[in-house]
Amino acid sequence: MDSFLSLGLSEWLVKQCKQLGINKPTPVQENCVPAILEGRDCMGCAKTGSGKTAAFVLPVLQKLSEDPYGIFCLVLTPTRELAYQIAEQFRVLGKPLGLRDCIIVGGMDMVTQALELSNQPHVVVATPGRLADHIRSSNTFSMSKIKFLILDEADRLLEQGCTDFTKDLEGILEILPAKRQTLLFSATLTDTLHELKNIAMNKPFFWESKSETRTVEELDQRYILTPEKVKDAYLIHLIQKFTDEHDDWSLIIFTNTCKNCQILTMMLREFNFPTISLHSMMKQKQRFANLAKFKASVYKILIATDVAARGLDIPTVQVVINHNTPGLPKIYIHRVGRTARAGRNGVSITLVTQYDIHLVHSIEEKIQTKLKEYPVEEKEVHKILTQVNVTRRECEIVRLPLFFTFQFQLKKNSKIYLQIIEPELTAKRKAELEKIKSQKKKFKQKIQENIQRQKHRQLKKKLTKRKQMKRKKAAQETA
Ligand code: AMP
User: Which residue range or ranges hold the DEAD-box RNA helicase Q domain (predicted)?
Assistant: First the structure.
C-alpha cells in the first residue's frame, strides 16, 4: 500500500497531505488509519517522529467531514506545548473543512477558554489538569457526544510520575460517552499496556512498530565520558564545534532541573551563543514565545528540561545533547527523538559521568543499540575549563537569583525563593532551626524538671512538718 487513497481516505484529505509534503503513508499510518476508519479502538506504538499525529488526525478529519458537529473529538496530551502542536496539525490538515479547534491548557486565561469551549469547537486538544478544572467549574459545554477520545503520549498520561494525571483523567472520563472510539498513541507504550487496555472499550486494534530498536536508524547515538566538573566545558566545546561547522543546525540540550536549565542558558549567553530556554518554572506565555522563536530559528539553541522531551517536532533540530544521563531509558528515547525525525538524519550525544555508567547500560539494553563514543580533543576542552567554571559560578550566584526574583516576584526570604535559589542556605537554616528547636526542648525539659523538683521539695517539707506535728502531739499526750 503506498498511497493515502488506498487507506480509505478521501481525495480532499490526500490533496491536503500532498500540499504539506506528506505523500506516502508511514508504517504507523498505513496500519492504524484503516482500523480507525473501520470504527475500531486503536493502540499505536511507533518510534517518535514516525508520523503518529497524522495517523490519528487524518481518520478523525475524514469522519468529521462525514458528520460535522462539536464537540466531535477530544485529544489529551501531557504537555502544553504538545497540545499546541497537535492542534496545529488538525488546523492545517483540516483547513478545507473550516475546522474549529480549541486548546485547553494550564497557564492561559480560563475565561477565554471557557468561552471557546461553549462555542462547540470540532476538536478540543487539552492537558488533563486544566480540562478537569473546566469540568469542575462550568456547565457551559458538553462532551457527552464526542466520537473520538485520543490519548497522545498515552503511557505518560497513565503512569504515576511526578505529575499524576489519574485523578483528572477519572473526572474527564466520567463526562464522556461510553460509545466512542478510543485511540492511544505513544512511542513507549508497552509498559503500561494493561492499564491502557482497560480504558479502551472494545477489543482494540493494536499496532507496534516491528523494529527491535526503539530509536531510528538515522540517529547517530553517541556518548562522552566526563567527570562531573568538566561536563560544562564539554558542552561549550560541543556547541562551539557544531555552530562553527553548521550554521543552519539547531540544537536541543536537555538537563535535569529548571535551575540547571536556567543556569546553562545564562552561561551559554555569556559565551554569545543564541540560546533560549524551556522549563516549567517559566510563565506559560514565555514558554510558548521561546518555543516559537526556536522553531523559527531565531535562536538556534534550546536548553530544556523533560517538559520538551516528548513529541515536539522541529525539523531543523540536528543535534540533541543530554547534559545529564536520563535516569530512565524511556526518557532517553523521547529526548533523542527530537532529532532524526521523519527520515532525516540526526546526532545525539549523552554526557556520562562515572556514576551514570549503569544508566547507559540500561538505555542500551532498552534501545538494543550500543552508544558509540564521540571523539573529542580533550586539550581543547581543558583550555576553556577554568573560564567555563568561573562563568557558571557567576551565573549561579549573581544572575540566577535575579531571574527568579523577577520571574516570580519573590521576596528574598520567601520559602520558595530559598528552596529554588539557595538550597544550601535553606539547609543551613533548617539545621539552625533544628538546633533552636532542640535547645528549646532541652530548656522546657529543664523547667519541667525544676518544677518537679520544687514540688517534690515542697511535698517533702509538708511531710516532715506533718511528722513533726504528729511527734509533738504524741509527746504532749504522753506528758
Ligand atoms: P509525529 O511523529 O507525528 O510528531 O510526526 C513527525 C513529522 O513527520 C511531522 O513533521 C509530520 O508532519 C511528518 N509526517 C507525518 N506523516 C508523514 C508522512 N507520511 N510522510 C512524511 N512526513 C510525515
Answer: 2-30
